[in-house]
Amino acid sequence: MNMGNIKFENPFLLLFLIPTFILGYIILVKGFVFDGYPLSSFTNKPKKINIVKYLKYLIFLLSVFFLILGSSTPLYLSYKIPIEEKGHSFIICLDISSTMKALDFGTQDRLSKAKEVISEFIKNRQLDFFGIIIFAKYAIPYVPLTSDTLFVQKKLNEIETEMIEDGTAIGNAIIMAIQQLQNYKGESKNIILLTDGINNEGYIHPIYAASEAKKYNIKIYPIAIGSTNPVSFPFKDSRGMIYTRKISIPVDYELLSQISQIGGNGENFIAKNFKDLQKIFRSIDKQKPIVTNIKTYYKYKKLDNILYIFSIIFFVLFLLIQFIILEVQY
After folding, report:
1. Which residues contact 255 (CB under 8 A, 6 or more apart)?
2. Which is the most buried residue in 5, 159, 204, 256, by most CB within 10 A?
3. What are phi and psi of 304, to 5 degrees?
4. Which 3 state secondary structure label does DSSP give 242?
5. CB 102 within 8 A of CB 142
6. What's the CA gap between 123 and 111, in Å, rounded?
7. Cβ contacts of 73 within 8 Å, gap of 6 or more
C-alpha cells in the first residue's frame, strides 16, 4: 500500500482499525460505558456523561490505534537516488571570498543567503547530479559530482567565508567544474557561477575557461551577487569587537556578460537582493525541466518504533487512570 511518501509493509493489518473505530463510535459517540473490565458487557446509556470513564476509554483506543498502525510497519520515503546518468548535472561554483560577508541581503551575509537558495534548488531536484566548487584565491573541488543530494546539502551548509585565502579565481573555478562535467552522459551539463567580485587570481582567464566549456557542450549561468551601491560590511577592531560600515564592492559585470555570451545563453543574471537571487534560480529551474523516467533507488525509514512508543505511553496512562478509579471506589 502506497500513500505518496508513505507506504506500509503489512497493509492488511490496517483492517483491524475498522473494529477499533466501530468500538470508539459505540463508546464515545453513542455514550455507552462499560461495567467491570473492558469489553465485558454494555449497560444502558447513563443520563450524565462520566468524563473520567470517557477519557479512560479514549486513551485505551488511542493505544490500540497506534499499536495497529505500528504493526502495519509504515515506511517514510527519506530520499531517492538516481542510479543512471540520465538527468541534468550541475556544478555550483561558489565564491567564498571575504566580500561575501557583506550584509546587503538582510541580517545574514551574502554567502548565507546564497547557500539558502542553492539548498532549496537542490532539494527540489532530487533526480539530478550536483557538485560544488568553492573558490577565492584558488579553487577547490569541495563536493564531487554525485546524485546524493542530502550529502551535497550537508556539505553546502558547512561552507564558510575565508576557508581559502582571499581573492577571486573565476577562471580556475570554471575549468575545475569542466573537469567534473566533461564525461557526464546525462540530459545536460551546467555550471552555476556565483560571485560578487572581480577576477584577480588564478592562472586561467575566465574567457578561455568559458570557451572550453562550450567545447564540451557545458552551459554556464554566471550570477553577479550584490548591489552596486555602498553596502554594510562587518569589521573587527583591535579589541575583537565587530562593527559595520558602508563600503563599495566592485563587480565585473562585463566579464560575467562575456562568459554568458560564450558559454551560456547570453542572459545576464544580477542578484541585487535575496528576491532577485530566488527569481534567478527559479528561472534556471524552469529552463531545465526535471527528467522523471530514471531508474531510481528509494531509501525508506521505518516509523513503527515511534508508533509503538506512543501505544505504550497511552496504555500506561490507561492503567494509571484505571488504578486511580479503583482507589477512589475502594
Report:
1. 170, 198, 199, 206, 207
2. 256
3. -65, -35
4. strand
5. no
6. 18
7. 8, 9, 10, 302, 304
How many Cβ atoms are within 10 Å of 270's Cβ, its own excluded?
Answer: 18
Q: Hey, how many other C-beta atoms are within 10 angstroms of the C-beta on 215? A: 10
Domain ranges of the chain: 2-77+299-329, 84-287
The C-alpha atoms of residue 12 and residue 123 are separated, in whole angstroms, by: 34
In this structure, what DSSP letter does residue 42 have?
B
DSSP 197: S
Burial of 30 by CB count in 10 Å (0-12 exposed, 13-18 middle, 19+ buried)? exposed
266-319 per-position pLDDT tens digit: 888 999 989 999 999 999 998 887 665 566 667 788 888 899 999 999 999 988
Query: d(Cα 58, Cα 70) in Å, to the nearest integer?
Result: 18
33, 54 Cβ separation under 8 angstroms? yes
DSSP 8-class letter at 27: I
Nearest to 129 by CA among 85, 176, 193: 85
What separation in angstroms does the CA of 64 have from each of 8, 34, 52? 18, 17, 19
Query: How far apart, in whole angstroms, are the C-alpha atoms of residue 186 and residue 176?
Result: 19
Sheet holding 269-271, edge to edge: 139-146, 129-135, 88-95, 188-195, 218-225, 269-271
Q: Which CATH superfamily is domain 84-287 in?
A: von Willebrand factor, type A domain (3.40.50.410)
Average pLDDT over residues 242-263: 89
**Could you tell me if residue 121 is left (phi over 0), alpha (psi between -120 and 50 degrees) or otherwise beta?**
alpha
Q: For the ranges 20-29, 128-137, 213-222, which has the lowest average pLDDT?
A: 20-29
First-to-final CA distance of the chain: 49
Confidence category of residue 12, pLDDT binned at 50, 70, 90: confident
pLDDT of residue 39: 46
Beta bridge partners of 140: 134
